[in-house]
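Much of the work behind modern protein science is quiet bookkeeping, done one molecule at a time. The protein below has been through that process, and both of its lines are reproduced in full.


***
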Amino acid sequence: MKKSEIRARLDELARPAFKKTQITVESLLAELEANIVGATVSGQHGAVNGAVALMGKLRGLLVDRVEIGGAGEFQQCENVDDVADILLADIDPADALAMLDELRAKIEERASNQATVIEQPAPTRPSNEADKSIALYRTTRKSGRR
């Protein structure tokens, strides 16, 4: 066998593996998009945020961050200004803002997962003349009377 024939055969054998890898990432993204639609309809905002974050990671848009600066460097901070000073001493302001956006999304996700749903109370009877008139108008409109 010639080198060119061997290369062609290797390329031929590698194509399905490459295709599988590509399909796997695409199918994950498609499934996440479907989950986002379902979660949005159900009002599960935490699930939506989680799926969006995972999509960003799969596409390489989000990168997990590790501690900035030395170990325990933030322990000496006494207020927000101290944290900002240390943060901006080590990284670019745009990167710091991106990290804070990611932190905010994570906090919102966790808070929404821990939230308690409060049912809306039943409507009360109208208390003033304008409300009574509007309520009467709506009931007569529904029943077809004018």
